[in-house]
Design brief:
Blueprint (H helix, E strand, L loop, with lengths): L11 E2 L2 H23 L4 E7 L3 H17 L2 E7 L5 H13 L5 E4 L9 H7 L11 H9 L7 H12 L8 E5 L6 H10 L3 E5 L6 H5 L4 E4 L17 E4 L3 E3 L2 E3 L4 H4 L5 E2 L7 H20 L2
Parallel strand pairs: 1-11, 2-3, 2-4, 5-6, 5-7, 7-8, 8-11
Antiparallel strand pairs: 9-10
Helix pairs in contact: 1-10, 2-10, 5-7, 6-7, 6-10
Bound molecules: guanine (GUN).
């Protein structure tokens, strides 16, 4: 029997772990080619300020991933008591190192430190995170630039599962500078009809029910319930909140999976794509710098 979207028994599950493994495999090959050609490995430098456990875990994961792919790393740390001047001086020193193709300052910075000048200190050609306004502007205007890793990873997932974007009604929930906003720009570049919703959106459900593709990055566990999703929609859950019961996404997975066509779980959906994309960006920046 042919299934219409309305009669979907259960959604297909987006396997971010498997797609991330493919991205890492391709990145490892490109890294090895770079090393053979240039006599050094592509390099990623990170700075972690303070002792936020989640941030420390993320940074450790980035170093582990890099080592496994043949990417060299520089691992700088500063205490939470570091001054703005100290942070900026360490970032400037990392940027100046020739072997650092990508420079990443783990966010958020501890209270009292201003991320803005720090973001501007990492030049666009070493900005693996895609946070520099020049890179954001490049994405907005369709020019070549590095996009923020999580939304770039979502685009890889959508492409892998051959989700049709031109003309599709895509609703993004959340407009953060590092996820929701660049996500909307990347989708718009692909000719989707993009609606961006946020905390002040008057009727969120009215918007989300229109979505052929619903991308949620609100950081609000369980925000998206079954009644908010159009039958047959593709649902991408970027939200990751640590709770006593483990990691929780923004989508009430079990009930939404009953109406969606395709859905990304938490964990195992978008999460693994972020670090894999960061690795891929590092190697791409190394090749771009070497080509100059
Ligand atoms: N904090 C949470 N996610 C990220 C990220 O992708 N990059 C940086 N630098 N900090 C983060």
């Amino acid at each position: 029997m042919t299934q219409t979207p309305e009669t979907h028994a259960v959604a297909g599950i987006i396997d971010g772990t498997a797609v991330a493994a493919k991205v890492r495999e391709a990145t490892k090959e490109r890294a090895a080619e770079f090393t053979a050609r240039h006599g050094r490995q592509p390099g990623l430098a990170t700075l972690l300020v303070g002792d936020n456990p989640a941030s420390a875990t993320y940074v450790a994961g980035k170093h582990r991933a890099a080592a496994a792919l043949g990417i060299a790393t520089i691992d700088e740390k500063l205490p939470a008591t570091a001054t703005q001047a100290e942070v900026e001086s360490v970032v400037a020193a990392l940027v100046a190192r020739d072997e650092a193709d990508g420079v990443l300052v783990q966010m958020p910075l501890p209270d009292g430190l201003d991320p803005e000048p720090v973001i501007l200190l990492v030049p666009p050609e070493k900005d693996v995170d895609g946070f520099h306004p020049t890179n954001v502007g490049a994405i907005a205007t369709g020019l070549h630039g590095t996009a923020s890793c999580t939304p770039a990873g979502v685009m890889t997932l959508l492409d892998h599962y051959e989700v049709e974007l031109p003309g599709a009604d895509v609703v993004v929930v959340g407009r953060s500078r590092t996820v929701g906003m660049p996500m909307a720009l990347l989708l718009l570049q692909r000719n989707a009809t993009v609606t961006v919703t946020h905390l002040l959106t008057k009727d969120l459900a009215r918007a989300t029910r229109q979505a052929d593709v619903l991308v949620v990055a609100a950081g609000h566990p369980g925000l998206i319930t079954r009644d908010m999703v159009k039958p047959g929609a593709v649902v991408i859950d970027i939200g990751i909140t640590r709770t006593e019961d483990g990691l929780k996404g923004d989508v009430a997975f079990d009930e939404v999976a009953e109406v969606a066509r395709l859905i990304s779980p938490v964990p195992g959906g978008v999460g693994p794509m972020t670090i894999a994309t960061l690795m891929s960006h590092t190697v791409a920046l190394a090749w771009a710098r070497a080509g100059k």
